Fold this sequence. Notes:
The chain has ten helices and eight strands. The chain has an eight-stranded mixed sheet. Helix 7 packs antiparallel against helix 9.
Amino acid sequence: MDQRKNDSIVPSITQLEDFLTEHNSNVVWLLVATILSCGWIIYLTYYNSRNVGLILTLVLNRLYKHGYIHIGSFSFSVLSGKVMVREIYYITEDMSIRIQDGFIIFRWWKMYNPKQKQHDPKAETRLYITVNDFEFHVYNRSDLYGRLQELFGLEPTIIPPKKDDDKTRENGRTRTQSKIERVKVKTESQDPTSSWRSLIPVIKVNVSTGRLAFGNHYQPQTLCINFDDAFLTYTTKPPSSHLDQFMHIVKGKLENVRVMLVPSPRYVGLQNDEPPRLMGEGFVVLQSNDVDLYYYMDEPGMSSLKVVQEWLCFFPEGLLPTHWKSSES
């Protein structure tokens, strides 16, 4: 009796096939395929990028132990060469970088000419970066304070000492020399046409609503630099000295720039020297509608490193600064 009731409630495969045959199975399967397709499209549109971002966050934090990395969502398109990200956080003990959203476009369809000049600022722009709501905050210098503690013979309370620090100090010059030799071999064997600068000679960056902050809650004021839009172009040029490899060049334009001293939110000390006036968020030190930016820096070559190495040989071991003794610096 119970078996008959179960058979009547849950149909068997034979009964299901007979039912679909009697009621035109093509319409039923079309309805099922439509529902599944709609569900898959909704998942790809709203949830797939977030799940990929969660997986990348777990993997990166598992591999990288010196800070916290968060990726809210991540998606890419091979056809358009676009990588889109949202809610990017990079937090360490000294600084933090936050990006609300942005995307990177790599124009892979541009013709690549390996014989083109690497230092040509008018070359094709294959890499384009757009960032919205960029925030860069420096609130500590633990590495510098750790060197000062080591220089004055204090106990390392900021950065715990490593087990092989003594061996590193003893073999500092030997390891530095071997490292320079490895760099020399790598530099001499490198083909100029195989460098990434020949593939991407120019990089354009567009930042919308950026902020740079320097300070913490131990200081009464925090230096903030705000701007609405920034249009930057990065390229390389021949070096100013024959001892260097090349020169980094960053040109750009910033709009509505304000440099302010803002009261630190959680400052608990005494306010001895107050700013003369507060306008809006804080005391405005500098304000301009348009700011032209030009930054250049030479990349040291093997010859420059060799000159520095020979110059350091004239100093006794005890007179060298602490950060020059380390082989990793």
